[in-house]
Amino acid sequence: MNPFLSRRQFAKAVGGLLAACAVPMAAETRAAAGPKNDTATKRAFPPGFVWGTATAAYQVEGAVKADGRGQSIWDAYTHTPGKVADGSNGDMADDDYHRYPEDIALMRSLGAGGYRFSVAWPRIFPNGGGRPNPKGVDFYKRLVDALHEAGIEPYCTLYHWDLPEALQRKGGWQNRDTAKAFADYAGYMAGQLDGRVQHFMTMNEISTFIGNGYGGTTMAPGLGLKGQALAQARHHALLGHGLAVQAIRAATGAKTKVGSAEGIDAPMPAYDAPEHVVAARKAALEENAGYLTAMHTGRYTDLYLKTLGADAPKFTPEEMRIIGSKTDFQGLNVYTGNYYIAADNERGYEAVPFPSSYPRMQSSWIQFAPDAMYWGPKLMAEALGISDIYITENGTSSTAAPDAEGRVLDIDRVMFLRQYLGELQRGIAHGAPVRGYFLWSLLDNFEWSRGYSERFGITWVDFATQKRTPKLSAMFYRDVIASNAV
Questions:
Q1: CATH of the domain at 218
Q2: N or C: which terminus of the chain carries fewer CB neighbours within 10 A?
């Protein structure tokens, strides 16, 4: 059964609303517009472009005590009073652990060709290492087999923030041993899925889980570290990425593609004067010096180390060589960006602050910046010599809720996606090496420290009944996929 309304049904349902808002086009205006020209009105993506959706284990799976799963830092964090805005947790979330066939049917109805999901480390090694949990492994084998049966290619993230709590008690990413434990887990899981998964991402957004979870208190484990302790935790996470790249290659061979997914506030020139473009390209390197730049060059920039001074991490040349292990692609999570202008200073650029009048989406951290999708991939590729990029997350929250007829008419999300995808196509046409796009997210889900108060899904989820209802944005995305164009 197709969970979407047919085009005819949907048109009938909203026809009255559209008719009430429509303004007839004058005959002379129609004549001036000329005949329909699909080349001019639709911006096509390259043949073979991958269209997908994305989720993360703790945000959708639920079943936190099922089949031998161990406790994660997010289980501990969300059950600490006052940590989550609405007092909720991911114990149930979308119950995707049991309902994944239904969710795969949603993807298939969209026409999606790819699905980015994450493996919950505590399902595989409940204590972070030691003896693997066969029931956890079997779940992910069933998931990827079901995806293949539906004609959907799995893209697997091995760490999306759910560190086993047992490892956190030993220091988490402050402890260098965690990097080795992660590599052991990554190599084992990649070997178990070898032949089923062709694209692995080591980690999701080191910048976020270190910055907000170790440097801040708004994400698990909420330590609020400063100075050298924070820089060292960041370095250990980078080392874990590099060791995992090597472990995955050892377990699967050359045929498997390995990368990571990193969040960026995309560098954008305030406007495209040559000097501001150069400034934004410099910012692409230096503003990502502790993450992507180190991963792609195998070194910390001189300015990064100088800025940290005595707080710089301790490292060896061998560790930097490992961190710079060659990858096959780079995932970029793009939601917003930062504008830059040329400046006569050591960096050669200056960030332009967003004025209070600048438009934002529901989530206050998402400034509406479609330019980010043009400049971000383009400048990151140029600055770091990246040959293959996937947009591994892009989307927005919305306050749109079911109306009296049960429809979710999230026109703010449709507007957001239309503008960002238009800029992505323009960037690809101008040389950005983007091979695919994964919309965040397939489902409304547990939004970390915001709980269930912000909904990023193109499918409405009634968390009391687990009923799924595709939103207007799902219809829009289905049509984009079908036409491979905006």
A1: 3.20.20.80
A2: N
- Within a domain: 17: no
Q: What is the pLDDT of residues 412-468, one digit of tens each?
A: 999 999 999 999 999 999 999 999 999 999 999 999 999 999 999 999 999 999 999
CB burial string 181-197: b at 16+ within 10 A, e below = bbbbbbbbbbebbbeeb
Overall residue count recorded for the chain in this entry: 486
Q: Which sign, positive or negative, has the C-alpha torsion 187, 188, 190, 191?
A: positive
pLDDT in tens, 245-260: 999 999 998 899 999 9
In a domain, 23, yes or no: no
- Quickly list DSSP for 399-465: -----TTS----HHHHHHHHHHHHHHHHHHHTT--EEEEEEE-SS----GGGTTSSB--SEEEETTT
**Would you say residue 6 lies in a domain?**
no
Q: How many CB atoms lie within 10 A of CB 463?
A: 15
CA–CA separation, 137 vs 120, rounded Å? Answer: 10
Q: How many domains are contained in the chain? A: 1
- The boundaries of the domain holding residue 253 are 52-483
DSSP 171-203: TGGGSHHHHHHHHHHHHHHHHHTBTTBSEEEEE
- Is the dihedral angle over the CA atoms 442, 445, 446, 452 positive or is it negative? positive
Pairing of strands 459-462, 467-470: antiparallel
Tokens (6 digits) for 350: 């200056």
Q: Given a cut of 90, is residue 3 above it in pLDDT?
A: no
Q: Which two tokens stand for residue 411?
A: 């026109």
Residues tagged active-site: 205, 393
Which one, of 75, 435, 42, lies nearest residue 257 by Cα? Answer: 435
Write the CA distances from 464 to 136, 348, 467, 471, integer angstroms: 26, 53, 8, 18
Q: Residue 381: is its pLDDT beyond 70?
A: yes
**The pair of three-digit structure tokens given for residue 404, joined into one six-digit string:** 């009296």
In a domain, 110, yes or no: yes
pLDDT tens sequence across 93-134: 999 999 999 999 999 999 999 999 999 999 999 999 999 999
